[in-house]
Design goal:
The longest helix has 24 residues, at about 1-25. This protein has a three-stranded antiparallel sheet with strand order 1-2-3. The chain has five helices and three strands. The chain is globular, with a radius of gyration of 16 Å. Helix 2 (about 60-80) packs antiparallel against helix 3. The chain has about 150 residues and is α+β, with helices and mostly antiparallel strands. It is about 65% helix and about 10% strand. The protein has helices spanning about 1-25, 60-80, 85-110, 125, 130-154; strands at about 30-35, 40-45, 110-120.
């Protein structure tokens, strides 16, 4: 179980470290294109959940955040006693690490630092800004679902 908690802690700490670097290196909404101009580094403060959802309900969002982090931690602990289910455990660890990083900032500052967007043709997609914690949550969710689907076939 310690390796899964360690993964969550490493993802959380890594994202918080990157966020601190971004806060120091960028002015808000300034942009730097990298990787052949396909990826844009920026600094954007999101006071809501994904796409600014619930920004006007900060206390509710904090409560949802605490519930979500607790649920992920509980699910990971519950799976800890199972022999197999490696994909699910890794997925939950990734989700927990990303949720902890974003949750920490939400609790401490009332907003989350986002810093990665993609230079694509669709303007709406180009305007969405992510952080590493978000990618950990997305990737962890995919691993959890894949693991569950594979487990159902057994």
């Amino acid at each position: 179980m310690m390796k899964y908690l360690g993964l969550a802690a490493a993802l959380c700490g890594g994202d918080l470290l990157i966020k601190d670097c971004v806060k120091d290196a960028f002015d808000e909404k300034s942009q730097k294109k990298i990787l052949g101009e396909h990826v844009i580094l920026t600094k954007f403060y999101n006071e809501g959940a994904m796409l600014g959802a619930l920004a006007e309900h900060k206390e509710l969002l904090k409560g949802i955040t605490i519930f979500g982090v607790g649920s992920l931690a509980g699910a990971l602990m519950a799976m800890g006693s199972l022999k197999d289910h490696q994909l699910q455990k890794i997925g939950l660890s990734m989700m927990l690490g990303g949720a902890l990083s974003n949750g920490y900032e939400r609790m401490k500052w009332g907003k989350v630092t986002d810093y990665i967007s993609f230079n694509c043709k669709n303007q709406k997609l180009r305007n969405v800004v992510y952080n590493f914690g978000d990618f950990a949550i997305f990737g962890g969710t995919a691993l959890l679902v894949i693991g569950e689907c594979l487990n159902m076939r057994k």
